[in-house]
Amino acid sequence: PPRSTLFPYTTLFRSQKPRDFRLEGDLLRFTSAVETPYPENNQVKAKWFPAGKPTKRAVVVLPHWNASFGQHAALCQGLARLGIPTLRLSLPYHDLRMPPELQRADYAVSANIGRTIDATRQAVIDSRSCFDWLEQQGYERFGIVGTSLGSCYAFLASSHDPRLRVNVFNHCSTYFADVVWTGLSTQHIRTGIESDIDLERLRAAWMAISPMYYMDRFGSQPKKSVFIYASYDTTFLPYLSKQTVDEVRRRKMDAKVIELPCGHYTLGEAPFKFIDGYQICSFLLRNL
After folding, report:
1. I need a surface site. Which of 75, 157, 175, 191 has the fewest CB within 10 A?
2. Residue 268 burial (CB count, 10 A)
3. So what's the pLDDT on residue 18?
4. How many angstroms separate the CA atoms of 173 and 196, rounded?
5. Strand, coil or helix: what is 184?
6. Angle between helix 149-160 and 113-136 (nearest 10)
7. pLDDT at 2
8. How many helices (H) and strands (E) does the chain have?
9. What is the pLDDT of residue 14?
10. Nearest CA to 210 among 108, 143, 117, 107?
11. Quick one: pLDDT at residue 5?
12. In 3-state terms, what secondary structure has residue 9?
């Protein structure tokens, strides 16, 4: 549909500041500004990796879909050792926030179109709340790192938050629907939905949570970004990542593009995880 008829998406991810931040050891807790029917999911958890020396810069890390609580800790520890304090957010319906009836984070992305939008909205607002806490601690320069689903969340958060000047998008794509429709990891979702809706209608329904819709908004702000994608990705198909790169270059954004010769999940295995980690850490050290 024409943009004039679309939902006013700029209000969808409006920052809402919770007041009950609690740092208990290395775990930051607060109540999500987005209320869902699941009490476990409403309590946000983020693991804190402080740096040894005082600094004004900090990073929030958003993991991939179905990440366990311990995953991405090595990256966070590496950044902290390099002098960049890092907060690793547990995404909605993941690990410590998972309702007891689940074994996977199926409420974050599913054939339930409305709940998927709401989970994305919650993830973005929770991310922005993390930066609110970091501001309260005296940090001033902020970066964000998102991987896979977390990369989509990170792009939406940065598009709506001018504080996020340095961005790392580990996997990238244009439309949320296209990833679900074509990706090998989400074929069970397509099977549950394709009898009632086609790709074009699903793309329109999920436009609110698609990075493509916010390209102009993102590109109008002073940001430095790196877009990383895999040549043999069967989850974020390479042509979708290349579409993102084309849109970034067409708008002449201040962005670096890295293509790695691996797949979606082998990016998390040796030797590619070391190459990826080096690219992420070096980019943040140079630009944050």
Report:
1. 191
2. 18
3. 64
4. 24
5. helix
6. 60
7. 41
8. 10, 9
9. 73
10. 117
11. 43
12. helix
Gyration radius of the chain's alpha carbons: 18
Return phi, psi of residue 251, to 5°.
Answer: -90, 0
Whether this model's pTM surpasses 0.90: yes
User: Tokens in use for 153?
Assistant: 């969340």
Both tokens assigned to 111: 């054939």
Q: What is the model's pLDDT at position 12?
A: 77
Residue 201, amino acid: R
Distance CA 255, CA 211 (A): 15
Q: Which of 79, 57, 5, 73 is nearest to 163 (CA)?
A: 57
Residue from 99, 94, 92, 89 nearest 40 by CA:
99
Query: DSSP label at 100?
Result: T
Start-to-end Cα distance in the chain: 38
Q: Which of 193, 147, 140, 149 is nearest to 167 (CA)?
A: 147
**Residues forming a β-bridge with 227:** 169, 257
Below-70 pLDDT ranges, the chain: 1-11, 15-18
Strands 27-31 and 224-230: unpaired
Rounded CA separation 161/158 (Å): 5
